[in-house]
Design brief:
Number of strands: 9
Helix content: 25-40%
Structural class: alpha+beta
Order of helices and strands: EEHEHEHEHHEEHEHHEH
């Protein structure tokens, strides 16, 4: 596996991204099958195709404000539009050449991309990276109105996987993980987000 590689649950037309929310936002979103109040359109929202990374971040849905785990199926066209408008959160020389060029782009970016260490199911940091994509208020309306296809609540599944891990049943926990495989990126998009 390459260090910078998007892995996701996807089909021909859609890709699943994960988000953690509080009860109020999650209940409203699952009920409406779209993001509605109290979800805010006026702040950046981060979407991640790696379930395990979100489990690390949300402490298996136990962190405050991240008690509910949603699997949001969005169009691949929307996902790739976001990547096509993205700027990395740091001035990677392999992508921008110099910091001044990056800073100029970053200040006007409507989408931000960050590569963070991926984690194993046992919460051990791995050598490869996981992508997270930040949608600013300038594009989040598109996410809400045009890209979202389905919203599923994975909180119960998350608690079940976590219980297996606490009981030492790693094989059972692993068998329940959502599927992820390498996501194919066009060369221009891969270059844009610093993927390999």
């Amino acid at each position: 596996m390459n260090q910078y590689e998007i892995r996701a649950d996807f089909d021909r037309d859609t890709i699943v991204v994960y988000q953690a929310f509080n009860d109020a936002i999650a209940t409203a979103a699952v009920g409406a099958q779209r993001f509605v109040e109290p979800f805010s359109l006026n702040r950046m929202t981060w979407i991640k195709p790696s379930y395990r990374w979100l489990m690390h971040r949300s402490n298996w849905a136990r962190s405050a404000g991240q008690e509910r785990i949603l699997a949001v199926r969005i169009t691949r066209a929307g996902w790739e539009e976001a990547l096509g408008r993205a700027v990395l959160t740091s001035p990677e020389r392999r992508v921008y050449g110099d910091a001044a060029r990056w800073r100029e782009r970053f200040e006007e970016a409507v989408v931000r991309v960050q590569w963070d260490p991926e984690y194993s199911i046992r919460n051990v940091k791995l050598d490869h990276r996981s992508i997270q994509v930040g949608l600013s208020r300038n594009i989040v309306q598109r996410y809400v109105d045009e890209w979202v296809v389905e919203i599923r609540d994975l909180t119960a599944l998350t608690h079940k996987i976590s219980a297996h891990l606490r009981d030492g049943r790693v094989d059972r926990a692993t068998a329940l993980l959502p599927p992820e495989k390498r996501y194919p990126l066009a060369e221009n998009l891969a270059k844009r987000v610093g993927a390999e």
